[in-house]
Design a protein that fits this description.
Strand content: 25-35%
Number of helices: 1
Largest sheet: 3 strands, antiparallel
Number of domains: 1
Helix content: 25-40%
Number of strands: 3
Strand order of the largest sheet: 1-2-3
Distance between the termini: 18 Å
Radius of gyration: 13 Å
Oligomer: single chain
Order of helices and strands: EEEH
Amino acid sequence: MNYRVVWYGGESTQLHFEKQIFKDEWRTMATSTLQYSFPTGVKELLLEMEDYYHHGLVLEEEYRQSLI
Protein backbone atom coordinates (compact mmCIF):
# COMPACT_ATOMS: atom_id res chain seq x y z
CA MET A 1 0.00 0.00 0.00
CA ASN A 2 1.07 3.56 -0.62
CA TYR A 3 0.49 6.27 1.97
CA ARG A 4 0.91 10.02 1.97
CA VAL A 5 0.27 13.10 4.07
CA VAL A 6 -1.27 16.09 2.34
CA TRP A 7 -2.25 19.63 3.21
CA TYR A 8 -4.90 20.99 0.87
CA GLY A 9 -3.83 24.61 1.25
CA GLY A 10 -5.77 27.80 1.76
CA GLU A 11 -7.14 28.46 5.22
CA SER A 12 -6.97 24.77 6.18
CA THR A 13 -4.89 23.82 9.20
CA GLN A 14 -5.48 20.10 8.73
CA LEU A 15 -3.10 17.41 7.59
CA HIS A 16 -4.62 14.31 5.99
CA PHE A 17 -3.06 10.85 6.23
CA GLU A 18 -4.21 9.05 3.09
CA LYS A 19 -4.00 5.54 1.68
CA GLN A 20 -3.96 4.85 -2.05
CA ILE A 21 -6.79 2.49 -2.93
CA PHE A 22 -6.61 2.69 -6.73
CA LYS A 23 -4.11 4.22 -9.15
CA ASP A 24 -5.53 7.74 -8.91
CA GLU A 25 -7.74 7.41 -5.84
CA TRP A 26 -6.77 8.18 -2.27
CA ARG A 27 -8.81 7.74 0.91
CA THR A 28 -8.31 9.84 4.03
CA MET A 29 -7.60 7.51 6.93
CA ALA A 30 -7.02 10.18 9.59
CA THR A 31 -6.77 13.94 9.93
CA SER A 32 -4.89 16.16 12.33
CA THR A 33 -5.29 19.84 13.05
CA LEU A 34 -2.05 21.71 13.58
CA GLN A 35 -2.57 22.64 17.23
CA TYR A 36 -0.60 25.75 18.07
CA SER A 37 0.11 27.62 14.88
CA PHE A 38 0.54 26.87 11.26
CA PRO A 39 4.22 26.46 10.30
CA THR A 40 5.62 29.64 8.79
CA GLY A 41 8.20 27.94 6.59
CA VAL A 42 8.31 25.03 4.19
CA LYS A 43 10.89 23.19 6.31
CA GLU A 44 8.67 23.38 9.41
CA LEU A 45 5.64 22.18 7.43
CA LEU A 46 7.67 19.28 6.03
CA LEU A 47 8.71 18.26 9.55
CA GLU A 48 5.08 18.33 10.72
CA MET A 49 4.03 16.25 7.72
CA GLU A 50 6.83 13.72 8.26
CA ASP A 51 5.86 13.34 11.94
CA TYR A 52 2.23 12.84 11.01
CA TYR A 53 3.16 10.32 8.29
CA HIS A 54 4.99 8.18 10.86
CA HIS A 55 2.09 8.53 13.29
CA GLY A 56 -0.31 7.42 10.55
CA LEU A 57 1.79 4.33 9.84
CA VAL A 58 1.65 3.42 13.53
CA LEU A 59 -2.15 3.80 13.49
CA GLU A 60 -2.39 1.59 10.39
CA GLU A 61 -0.25 -1.11 12.03
CA GLU A 62 -2.34 -1.00 15.20
CA TYR A 63 -5.48 -1.35 13.08
CA ARG A 64 -4.03 -4.35 11.21
CA GLN A 65 -3.05 -5.98 14.50
CA SER A 66 -6.56 -5.51 15.86
CA LEU A 67 -7.91 -7.57 12.95
CA ILE A 68 -5.86 -10.62 13.89
